[in-house]
Amino acid sequence: MMGRTRLSARWVIGHRDGRHIIYENGVVVIDGTQVVYVGPQFDGPVARQIDYGQAVISPGFIDLDAVSDLDTTILGYDNGPAWKKGRVWPDTYVARGPYEMYSAQELAFQKHHAFAQLIRNGITTALPIASLFYREWGETVAEFDAAAAAAQALGLRVYLGPAYRTGGQVTDAAGTIRAVYDEDRGLRALAQAGEFAARIDGAAGGRIRAMFAPDRIETCTQTLLCRTADMAADMDAPVRQHCSQSKTELRLLRDQHGCAPIEWLHQIGVLRSNWLLPHGTHATPAEFDLIAAAQATLVHCPLVAARHGTMLRSFSACRAKGINIGLGTDTYPADMILNMQIAMITARLADGAQALRSEDMFDAATLGGAHALNRPDLGRLAPGAKADITVIDLRDRLQTPDPVQTLMTACTGRDVRDVWIDGCQVMADGVIPGIDEAKDAASAQAQFDGLVTKYPDRTLGHPPVSDIFIPSYERAAP
C-alpha cells in the first residue's frame, strides 16, 4: 500500500492507557498494515482521505467462535428434543455407516461464503467453528486448505485448524445418549491437524495463524486432550474446547470421569492460559474459579444460548473473578452487534440493570478476544496496532449521546459499511470485491435445502422431513 490513508467520522473509538477512548469528530491514520495516529485531528500529508460522516470508526470485532458452515442449529429453534430431530446420530445410522453430507466443493464454498458474512458484520479476526453432526467424523485438512485460500482471497484474519475428536454422540430409541469412541482415528486426525498447523501458521503475511480445535469435551479422551495441549504449547497456538454447554454433556462427563467438565480439564492438566472455552452456561462457581486461576478465556456466545433457553450466569460474576471474557457468534447470522445486545440483556436479567454497562460488552468483543489470542496489536485503534477497522453507519439510526450505547440500542450488523483488515479495505459501502452476494446466497440456500432432505437418514426412526421440522402454521393447499 502506497502512502497514508486518513479516515474520519463523527465518532472514533480509539485506545489509550489500556482503555478505549472516544473522540468526537475524530481521525484515524493508516500507514501500511498499521494504525499510526488516532485523535482529534491530523494535518500531516496523506495519499487518501475518507470522511464517513455520521458513523462510528471502531476497532474490528474478534469472533472466537465464528460459524464457518451453514448453521444447522437454527433448524432446532422450534424443533426438539435434539435426539429426536437428527441432532444426535441414531444407532441405526451409525451401524450403517456415517457419511459426508456435503461434497468437498460444497464445503469449500461454505468457508468462502461464511468468511464473507463475517466481514459484512464487521468481524476482522475469526476462529471458525462448524458442526460435525453432518460429517463422517471430523473436518479435513483439504477443506482447511480451502479455508486458508478463502481467507487469503477475502483478506480476513483467521486462526485455522480442523476439528477432531475421539468420540461421537449416539442415541437409542429411548433417547439415551451415549458416547462411542474410536481413539485411534481421533489421534490420527490430531496428527494431521498438527501438520496443518505447522504448515499454515504465519501465512498471508501473518493474517493466517494456527489453532487447535478438539470438538466437544464429551467426545474427547484424555490422551487426545493432553497431546493437544502439548502440541499447542509448543507452537504458542490457542486451543478452543467447547464445554459446559448442556445437561447431556454434564451427565456424560460425570459418567465417564466422575466430575464436571472444567474440573476434568484441570485434573488432567490441560487447562491453560491459551485455552478458549465456549460456552460456560452450565459451569459452577468452582469451575469459574478454575478458569480464572488458569488465566484461560471464557468465550461467551449469548445469541445461540438464549435461543435455546440458557444464558451465562453470570457475566458480572465471571468478570469479578478476573476471568477474561471474549465473544463468539456461533450461529447464523454472524452479527456481533446483535450478540453484544443479547449479552447485555441476559446479563441484566441475571444480575439486574446496573450489573454492567455497554462498554463492558464492547470490551469483550474487542479487547477480550485480543487478550485471548495474546495479541496486543488487535482489538484496539492505537499507534502500532494492526489496522483492523470496522465502520458502522449511523445515518439512519436514532443516536444517543454516546456511540457505544447507540450500538447497543439501535444498530445491527447490517449497519456495517466499510471494513479494513491489515490496512486493506476489504469491504466498501457494503460491497466485498469479487463477491456476487445474490448468487452466493442462492447457492447457500440450495445447499442448505439439500441437507434438510437428508435429515431422515440420521434421525431416530427415519421419519419424513415434515415430521422432523414442524411448520409454524398449517400450510395452505396450492
What does this structure look like?
The protein is of the alpha/beta class and 478 residues long. It has helices at 91-96, 104-120, 141-154, 183-200, 222-235, 247-257, 261-267, 285-294, 302-307, 315-320, 336-351, 358-372, 403-410, 437-454, 465-468; strands at residues 4-16, 19-31, 34-39, 48-51, 55-59, 61-67, 89-90, 123-129, 157-160, 163-164, 167-171, 177-181, 208-210, 213-214, 239-240, 275-277, 297-300, 324-327, 389-393, 416-421, 424-427. It folds into 2 domains: 1-60 and 379-428, Urease, subunit C, domain 1 (Roll); 61-376, TIM Barrel, CATH 3.20.20.140. It has 15 helices and 21 strands. Helix 2 runs parallel beside helix 3, helix 7 packs parallel to helix 8 and helix 11 (336-351) crosses helix 12. The chain starts with a strand and ends in a 10-residue tail after the last helix.
Main sheet summary: 8 strands, mixed
Radius of gyration: 22 Å
Helices, by number, come to: 15
Q: Measure the end-to-end span.
A: 57 Å
Keywords:
single chain, 478 residues, globular, Urease, subunit C, domain 1, alpha/beta, TIM Barrel, four-stranded parallel sheet, eight-stranded mixed sheet
List the helices and strands and how they pair.
Elements: E1 4-16, E2 19-31, E3 34-39, E4 48-51, E5 55-59, E6 61-67, E7 89-90, H1 91-96, H2 104-120, E8 123-129, H3 141-154, E9 157-160, E10 163-164, E11 167-171, E12 177-181, H4 183-200, E13 208-210, E14 213-214, H5 222-235, E15 239-240, H6 247-257, H7 261-267, E16 275-277, H8 285-294, E17 297-300, H9 302-307, H10 315-320, E18 324-327, H11 336-351, H12 358-372, E19 389-393, H13 403-410, E20 416-421, E21 424-427, H14 437-454, H15 465-468
Parallel strand pairs: 1-4, 1-5, 6-8, 7-11, 8-9, 9-13, 10-14, 15-16, 16-17, 17-18
Antiparallel strand pairs: 1-2, 2-3, 5-19, 11-12, 19-20, 20-21
